[in-house]
Amino acid sequence: MKLNFIAGIFVTVLAGSASLAFAGLVSYSPGSGVISSPHNMNLYLPLATGGANNGDNQQQVCKFCHTPHNTLSTGQASYSPLWNHTQTTQNFLPYVGIEEGDYMTEPDYLDKSASLQAVIDPADMMDGPSRLCMSCHDGTTAIDSYSGKMGSFTPTSNHVVLAPDGAFGGANGGNLMDDHPIGFSYGKVAALDPYIHQPNANISWIPAGDRKCTTISELLYKGDKLTCASCHDVHNTANATAAAPLLRVKLDGSKLCLTCHDK
Ligand code: HEC
Ligand code: HEC
Ligand code: HEC
Ligand code: HEC
């Protein structure tokens, strides 16, 4: 891992495969594992806070998210793999495919665009990994709030924050209306929409070397729900097919999109 500091931003000098388009603070090689990735908070926090050493005092990497004992598994997340990061308490607004303004005058997730088959119930749309991701990507929960300690660094950059709090005030702060839909049954949509691939089909239309899955079901929480982890590999797992930014299928030629969409 080699970092170059140029005019206030870090750029990658690695392997050529890491795309500058997604360059965050930490440059990395896709597929090289979590330690050298943007998800190693010990690399990220000192850079983000201008050199202050507020990483883990033992430089533990997993600890920001997992711990072997005394986990923080109580909270709103339905899925807590030995979870050790403070969980977001926000409610999130779903993608409905219509103007946010129109939706907000009379919020009802059944009031959606004509083309959208997915029915996203805000009450359970964050099931599975999604709520865990938003426990750092919500712009409200401090990145260094883990092991029960109150952290102090909450990023504001669009690169990290997907759903800024308070977009509409009050409990509906987390706005995911302008993001790819998550938190719905993929199987139900595939049964209705002929341009969505069947979840159990062998993904033969994407070259095997460009994806880290054989069927779409493998990408879905409990084999059915589309979540953040359907597209993203949080651990940047060592595998030649991984792609930036932490994706499970390569983005060139929009292969990730064509994994599910028959377009
Ligand atoms: C930035 C947060 C983060 C860090 C750091 C992290 N994980 Fe995870 N981990 C997650 C999330 C989120 C999930 C659930 C998402 C999923 O299953 O795709 C998960 C799931 C897991 C799982 C269960 C699912 C599976 O993939 O087997 C294991 C085991 C795991 N992590 C081990 C580790 C280890 C070991 C480390 C450190 C070397 C680590 N993780 C570092 C966030 C993290
Ligand atoms: C412990 C906090 C934490 C958790 C939990 C977490 N992230 Fe992140 N993630 C970050 C931070 C901080 C960055 C920005 C790092 C940087 O800019 O170098 C980041 C960066 C990213 C990036 C951009 C990577 C790139 O190439 O620049 C993606 C994509 C991402 N996270 C997705 C996820 C997903 C999906 C999950 C859940 C499965 C998740 N994150 C969970 C803290 C977290
Ligand atoms: C349908 C696939 C898909 C889903 C679902 C998805 N993402 Fe992404 N995400 C992407 C792609 C593709 C990019 C890169 C977009 C680009 O820059 O062209 C990305 C980029 C990001 C980035 C980096 C943003 C930046 O500006 O650099 C973060 C952080 C992120 N995603 C987090 C999440 C989280 C958290 C969730 C769940 C709430 C999620 N993603 C759900 C496909 C997805
Ligand atoms: C894991 C499977 C999967 C991946 C990967 C994926 N999508 Fe989707 N996407 C879906 C499903 C399922 C829906 C809901 C379709 C529906 O309701 O008819 C959807 C919805 C959409 C919609 C909204 C349709 C509407 O009617 O409002 C668009 C646009 C879209 N996806 C584009 C993309 C793009 C672009 C990418 C790549 C960056 C991508 N998708 C990646 C499964 C996926």
From TrEMBL:
InterPro entries: Multihaem_cyt_sf, Paired_CXXCH_1. It comes from the Bacteria. Keywords: Signal. This is Doubled CXXCH motif domain-containing protein. Residues 1-23 form the signal peptide. SUPFAM superfamilies: Multiheme cytochromes (SSF48695). Residues 227-263 form the Doubled CXXCH motif domain.
